[in-house]
C-alpha cells in the first residue's frame, strides 16, 4: 500500500533524490574509468542520504555520508589505485556461457518481485508512520536519541556481540595477510 | 525539521542474567586471552598452552551448562537482556554439544598442528571464537543476534578453512566458502529485514505473539522474508540445492577443521533454524512445511546418491553430511515437540561421531594432509585392528546400524515424521538411507579387505586416540542405551512453542 497524500515539496525532494541516485548508479556501471565509477558511487550515496533526511532519519543520513561516501569509497579508491587505473580488462570475454542474459533475467525477476511486494504487502513498521504527514517517528524525541535508547535497551546484547564480531574479523584478516610461520626442520616443539 | 527539545530521560539498562551468557563470555574471553598472550608474551605461545586454554574453556562451558540445567530445573526457562537471549533446555543442551565438539576438535587439531609444524595460537583463537558464535546462535531469541552469531561462526571458519597454506585447495575452498557464505548472509539479513517489516519486531517471541494474535491480510512480505531466511539457513546446513560449496570446502579445508566445521555449524545453524521456524513462525507451519518437504527430499536423495560416486574420503563424508542434514530437517518438518526433541537428539549424537570420524581421516591423511582416497583405507583394520574397528563403528553409526547411536537418531526423526502424517516423506528418507548404506558398507568392507597393500603403519598420537576412543564409546553407549539421552532431549524443549 502506498500512502495517498504527499505534500508538493516532499515530492520535489523525492524526485530530486531519486534522479541523483539513479544517475549515479548508471554512472557506476557505464564509466570506463574505475575512478569515475567510484565517484559516481559517491553521488548515489549522497542521493540516498538526501532521501534519508526527507524521511526524518537524520542520523542515518549523517552515517551514510561519513561512513559510506567517506570511508568506504575512499577504501575503494585505494584498492583501485593499488590495482592500477590504466589496466584494461577484456570484459567481452565471458567465462560463463550466457551469463549476461541470465543476470538480466535475474535482475528483472528480483525487481519485479520486490515491486510486487511493495505494492501488495502490509508493512507493520516504517514508511507509514514516518512520511505520511511529515512528523518525526515519535513527537518530541530526536531520532539520534531514539537510536541511542534502543541500542542500550532493546538491542543491548546485539550491540555488545558486534564487538566480538569485529575482534574475530580483525584477527582473521591479520592471520590471512601475514606471512607464513611454521617450525623449521631443526626446531622442536612439545 | 523543528527544533529538537532536550530530552533528559534516563534509560533503564535491561537486566542481565549472567549465568545465561556465561558460556559465550568464557569462550570469547579465552579467545581474547590467547590473542593478548600471542601479542604480549615474548616467547611464542606453544601449541600445548593454546590447546590447554581451549580445552579448559570448553570444560568450563560444560560445567556451566550443568549449572544452567539446575537453574532450569528450579526456576524454569527464561529470557534475558531485553529478551535477546533465551535460557531453555534446548539452548543448554545445544551449548553442551558445541563445547564437546570444540573439546574433541581441539585435541585432534593439537596433534595435527604438531605434525604439520604449525606455530602459534591462531587456530585455537579462531576455533574458540567460532564456537562462541555457535553458542550465540543456539541461545539467540532475536534475528539480529542470530545473524551476529552466524557471522562470528562463519568468519572464524572462513579463516580456519584457509589455514593450510601449503595446499592451493585450501585457499580456493576458503575463497569459495567466503563468497558464497557472504551471499548467504546477505540473503539471510534481507529476509530478517522483510520479516521485521511484516511483524514489527526482530524478537522471535514478540514475532510469535504478533503472528498468533493478528491475521495478515497481505502476508506476501512475511512469506518473502521467511523464504529468504530459509535460503540463508539452508546454505549454512548445506541443504540441496544450496549445498554446492560443501564438498569443495570439506575437501579443501585442513581435515581437523572439516571435522570441527561439520559438527558446530550443524549444531549452531540447526538450533537457530528450529527456533526461527518453530518458535517464531510456528503459526505459519502450513506455509513453510511444503518448502521444507522439497528440501528434505532433495537433500536426502542427492546427498546419498552423489556420495556413491565419490572416490575421495572427505568428499564422500561431505555428501554424507548433506544426507544427514536432510534427516535432521525431518524433525523440524514435523514441527512438534517430539520432532524438536528428535532433531536435538540427532545433533547431539551426530556431532561427536563426525568429529571422531574426521580424526581418523586426519590420521590416514598423513603428513601434508594429502592422502584421502578411499584406497588408503584398504586393509586398515587388518594392519591396525583398533583404528580400523573404530572407523568401522563410526561409519556404521552414520549409516544408522542398530546398536549405534545413529540408529536411534534416524528412528526418532522418522517416527516423529510419521506421527504427523509424513509417511511418504519418511519413506523417501529411508530409501536415501538405503542408498547411503551402500557407500558406508563399501568403505567399511574396504577396511577389512584381505588384499596385501603396502602401507606404513599410522602412528596414533595420544590425544587424537582419546578423541577417537571417546567418539566410539559415545556412539556405542548411546546406541545400546539411548534412554537417558532421549529423556534429556525430551526435557530440553523450546521455551516458546505456539
Shape of chain A: globular
Bin the helical content of chain A.
55-70%
* Tally of DSSP β-strands of chain B: 2
Please identify the oligomeric state: heterodimer
The average pLDDT of chain B is: 91
Structural class of chain B: mainly alpha
How helical, in percent, are the residues of chain B?
over 70%
CATH superfamily caption of the largest domain in chain A:
NADH-ubiquinone/plastoquinone oxidoreductase chain 6, subunit NuoJ
Number of contiguous helices of chain A: 7
Cα shape of chain B: globular
> What percent of residues of chain A are in strands?
under 5%
Low-confidence stretches of chain B: none
Largest sheet of chain B: 2 strands, antiparallel
CATH architecture of the largest domain in chain A: Up-down Bundle
CATH class of the largest domain in chain A: Mainly Alpha
Write down the domain tally of chain A.
2
Characterization of the model:
The complex is a heterodimer of chains A (190) and B (498). Chain A has 190 residues and is an all-alpha fold. Chain A has two domains: 1-87 and 123-140, NADH-ubiquinone/plastoquinone oxidoreductase chain 6, subunit NuoJ (Four Helix Bundle (Hemerythrin (Met), subunit A), Up-down Bundle), CATH 1.20.120.1200; 141-182, no CATH class. Chain A is built from seven helices and no strands. In chain A, helix 2 packs antiparallel against helix 3 (58-83). Chain A starts with 7 loop residues before the first helix and ends in a 13-residue tail after the last helix. Residues 126-136 of chain A have low confidence and may be disordered. Chain B is an all-alpha fold. Chain B has one domain. Chain B is built from 19 helices and two strands. In chain B, strands 1-2 form a two-stranded antiparallel ribbon. In chain B, a hairpin with a 4-residue loop joins strand 1 and strand 2. In chain B, helix 1 (18-40) packs antiparallel against helix 4. The radius of gyration of chain B is 22 Å and the shape is globular. In chain B, 60% of the residues are buried. Chains A and B meet through helix 4, helix 6 and helix 7 of A and helix 1, helix 4, helix 5, helix 6 and helix 8 of B.
